């Protein structure tokens, strides 16, 4: 038996209220079950109960075993002096208060139906390889799942915005600077994301603003900071960038990131760090004050148009500085732009709007519902259990569900888990 489950039973009164009696056989009537307290102190505050002919106002403490009261040293804690009822699953000890009177106790297992317990056992005690409700989730009605998905999506946005706030504090609330860092990180994808963020943070954004209007200078800055201009490559463009970086490094007292942080291993050529850096150069060179442009966009086509950038001619015939390759425009694909919208633009716009007290939630939902569903192992696994995703809004919700509810077994806080338990 799980104490959290007992909290759940008490909170939603999932037990027979008829004939409810304490362990001392006094009639118990629950007028108010109290407010669930997730901080230190009794589990439910400001409850109202009628025990026998006496009405009580105070707190409720819940344990699996009555003896847990002493195990947790509540008898020496003044926070528990106002407890008026002890709710337990097993009554293995009599609890005495300061006045030497026994604490009224409700033995919950005497009043819980077998079906509720079976639902609990199926959800929590059945061995599972992935999620607790994988054998039941397909039977939960669509209305419950759809409403829960929306809540999950905005929880995910809130969590991402909390992470972005840390960057904003470091950059004195400069949204342009934070957009630069986030986009650079996401251009690195999962494999090179950390290395790309290190690259973005290796140079003050004020320097980026100064040099980004000159494409060669900006290329020299990013490739030099990434450590890609330290070889003896006999190429005129490479030598030009190397000389420019030598000047910038001394002017701004820069310290480069080691190129060993960047991985090319088993990557498609279009995802090579060199190509992604070149695309970043083109993007920020062609769009000064990028955040100011992005913040007003609502139409998906406008996002695609903004990210339709032209690469420097050198990179149309190269994947690195050493060897030429077949001509390729190397434009940003729609699927890649979708990832930027999902992981960078929407979270940052959400936080920006929130800071101004006017969040347009519908615009975020509208955009994400037009994007194709993400493809990954989590989404594929949900589909196996009968929960499919039609768009990026739903895949984001399912990722939040898996990572922050299923994995830590927060079934009692999940609308799907509650629906299964309440059958």
Total strand segments: 6
Query: Could you describe the largest sheet, including whether it forms a barrel?
Result: 6 strands, mixed
- Helix-residue proportion: 40-55%
> Could you give the order of the helices and strands?
HEEEEHEEHHHHHHHHHHHHHHH
Based on Cα principal axes, name the global outline.
elongated
Strand content: 5-15%
Alpha-beta content class? alpha/beta
Number of helical segments with 4 or more residues: 17
Report Rg. Answer: 29 Å
Low-confidence stretches: none
What's the average pLDDT? 95
**N-to-C span:** 19 Å
Protein name: DUF2851 family protein
Explain this structure to me?
The protein is α/β, with parallel strands linked by helices and 423 residues long. Among the domains are: 3-112, no CATH class; 175-348 and 360-368, no CATH class. Helices cover 48% and strands 9% of the residues. The chain has helices spanning 3-11, 68-71, 114-125, 142-170, 175-187, 189-201, 205-211, 215-225, 236-252, 273-286, 290-294, 300-306, 334-355, 361-370, 377-384, 392-406, 415-421; strands at 28-32, 35-36, 44-51, 54-65, 83-90, 105-107. Strands 1, 2, 3, 4, 5 and 6 form a six-stranded mixed β-sheet that branches. Helix 4 (142-170) crosses helix 13. The longest helix is centred in the middle third of the chain and has 29 residues, at 142-170.
